[in-house]
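Recap from last week: sequence in, structure out.
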Amino acid sequence: MKRIKEVQQKVESLYNEYNAAVGKQRPALDFDSLESIEKGFQAIFNADARATRNKTSLPKALSLELRKSFADLLLLMDGKDLVGDKLKAAAKAEKEAAAKAAEEVPESKIA
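Predicted structure tokens:
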């Protein structure tokens, strides 16, 4: 639950920043409604597609970060924490590598 709150705050911040950068007021996001989040994501995606097609400029880095955050939020709302799973897998691999390295260290004999 902690990660979902962090991602919600990040999405809200980026969404407001994006709207200010493009000079357009979009409806506020309702984080309790999956439909609202999906509509917000789709609106940003469509705006980027139109800008690319019309060769107009939009804040690309901000747009990319916002879309990544929307996708992360949608996955979290669906019960899938890919970032958390990736961190757990990396920690497990690191732990196994450390254990394997400890087994391979030959014991030195003191003369």
